[in-house]
Amino acid sequence: MKISTYNVNGINSRLPVLLRWLALAKPDIVCLQELKAPDDRFPEDAIQDAGYRAVWHGQSRWNGVAILSRAWEIHETRRDLPGQAGDAQSRYIEAAINGMLVCGLYLPNGNPRPGPKFDYKLQWFQRLHDHLAGLVGLDAPVVCMGDFNVMPTDDDVYAPDRWRDDALFAPEVREAFFRVLDQGWTDAVRHLHPDETVYTFWKYWRGAFERNAGLRIDHALLNPVAAGRLVSATVDTRPRGWEKTSDHAPLCIELTPS
Questions:
Q1: Which residues carry a binding-site annotation for Mg(2+)?
Q2: What are the structural domains of the chain?
Q3: Taking all residues of the chain, what is their mean pLDDT, rounded to a whole number?
């Protein structure tokens, strides 16, 4: 079973890239972020023509998340995290698929720091922490994937000293990430590749992708049941090199069948 997460950076403007990648990689389940489209602008017909069912939680111009499934029905279980009534930002969606719980998220960027956007990022991270605490111990596999907007360690950024003041690299944010892991979640990439350079994001300018001057900000966290089935965790860099593409590349994990 191949499960992927991909920040598409605008699903309608990047739709040819997404469809090309789906046809090439054939993931079974995909979590998408940064749809940048309201619910009524989600390209449902094109996604269905590509062979995928979908649930989505859109937002005009910003944010937006979705989950796609190629072979199985999707049973949406939640959109939005608990803990803040009236939160208008579309950043979380959750669904039961083939006996598995899939959580797709787009954590706030938080810049500039300090400021209200950074405060919101920390608050949102705490809400995620509290919600995942109730999921980690489930008897079924749980996969939490998406753009976390955090580089957990110096090994996850090409030039750590350039990022010390950035909200994605702030000590409070890194600590929040590890507090989630301490609940019993497994960081799939670091579990299988503890010492390798692995990036999922490269800026558009200064040849960042060509120089591999990247960041690892997209993550896949697995509860113990899912971690026991983990086979591989890789970044598919092919679409990052295509024209009119996202600045992210898909992160893909494989699990053995139940």
A1: 7, 34, 147, 149, 247-248
A2: 2-255 (3.60.10.10)
A3: 97
